[in-house]
Amino acid sequence: MVCGAGINAVGVAPDGRVARYLALGTISGDWGGGYGLGLEVLWHAIRAEDGRGPDTALGGYLTRHFGVERVEEVTIGIHKGKIPDDDLIGLAPMLLRASDEGDAVARTVVNRLAEEISVMAITAMRRLDLTALATPVVLGGGVMTARNPPLISGITRRLTEAAPAAEVRVIDIPPVAGAALLGLDHVRAPVAAAARLRAAYGISGRP
Question: For the chain, N or C: smaller number of CB within 10 Å?
Fold first, then answer.
């Protein structure tokens, strides 16, 4: 299960069956990657500023991050192309910080994220008949490896309710390392190349 700039999950059963998702964003039913979380931060912050939504510390985080006085300046900057859409990806850490500080709005979003991550993982496990097995559930990506306590505990609780024998783990190895190893396999690179890559990322185990 990966949650970083985007979000996706893949499951593999002992017999080789695979369950995965398209992971193309909103058009494929996804929510919760760094970009989506950035949109949530901006959405809640602007609504708090103009009175449509409850107060939240996210507005202050946003204005300080972009060096402006009002959240609406961020919105207008994105609308006019002065602030790249990709800058929203970097707002996820402020959501987690605000949640840790007790901000009710941020906590609501983090709870929703825990639910979404759990739904993706549990659904993949059910499709592969893995919920009754001691299945390792590996959590990776920048949002996960931040190890935000409410997020990780929320995911773990939901997973163990649906699959009591599941073994939840958080890894620090970036998902790109796996893609690089697959690429080396594809071009039939020497074993030494994979060994160097594994050493660079601190990956143990046989190539």
Answer: C
